[in-house]
Amino acid sequence: MPTNATRMAGPAIHATDPWTPGHPKKRVRHQLLSNDERAQLAKIAAIVRFEKGERIYNQGDRADAVFNIISGVVTAYRMLADGPPVMSFLYPGDLFGLTEEARYTNTARATTPVIAYKMPLQSVQRILSSSANLDVQIIVKLCDELRQAQHHAVLLVQKRAVKRLAMFLELQEHLQIARNEPISEIYLPMDRSSIADYLGITLPALSRAFRALVVKKIITTRGRHYVKVLDREAFKKMADA
Known about the structure:
With 241 residues, the chain is α+β, with helices and mostly antiparallel strands. 39% of the residues lie in helices and 25% in strands. The protein starts with a helix and ends with a helix.
C-alpha cells in the first residue's frame, strides 16, 4: 500500500536518458518529472489496485486512461495474426496504455499484485498540450521503451533456448542496476510461464535451459524467483548476442 508521501508525490516516470554518455547497460534510471509536473498529474490521477493475474484491459478495448506503476510488475502483450504475441514486462515508474484510434493496442495483465496511478486519457492530453517539457520527457520515456523492444527482438532471433534465457537474465540484471538495486541475485517477479512466453519457447524448453545453466555451474537458483550468477565470464559469453 502506498504511503501518504507516495500519494502526494504523484506519478513518477523513470527512464535512462538516451543522450547521456556512457554504456546503456550501465546507466541508472532517474525521475524525469519535476515536483510541479508530478503534482500536476496527481490532480487528475486515482490510485488503483490489481490482484496477481488480473486483467487490466484487453487489446481492442476503448481506451479511456493511461497507467503509471507505483509497485508491482505488469505484462503487456499484443496478439498477432501470424505469430507469437509481442510482450514486455513493465515495472514501477513505467507507463502503459498505448492507444491507436482510441483503442488499446495491447492487453495488460498484473504479473504480481499491482498498485498504479490511473489517469484519464483526455486529461493527460490536455496537460501535454500545455507543457512542452512534459512532452519531451514522454519522448525520452518512449525512447527507453524502444530500446527494451529492440533487446527483445534481438533475443527472439537466437536459435538456442539456453541463449535466450541467458540474455533475458542479463537484461533483468541490467534493469536492477538501472533501478540502483542490489545485484547479488537476479530477481524474477514473473512466473515461469510468463518467462517462457516472453522468450518464445515452451515451458519444458525453459526448464531444460535453466537446468543446463545450473549443471554447467554458470548460475544457481533459489526457489523460482532468484538466480545467482556463479561464473561471470561464462554467463557474459552466453548472454552476448
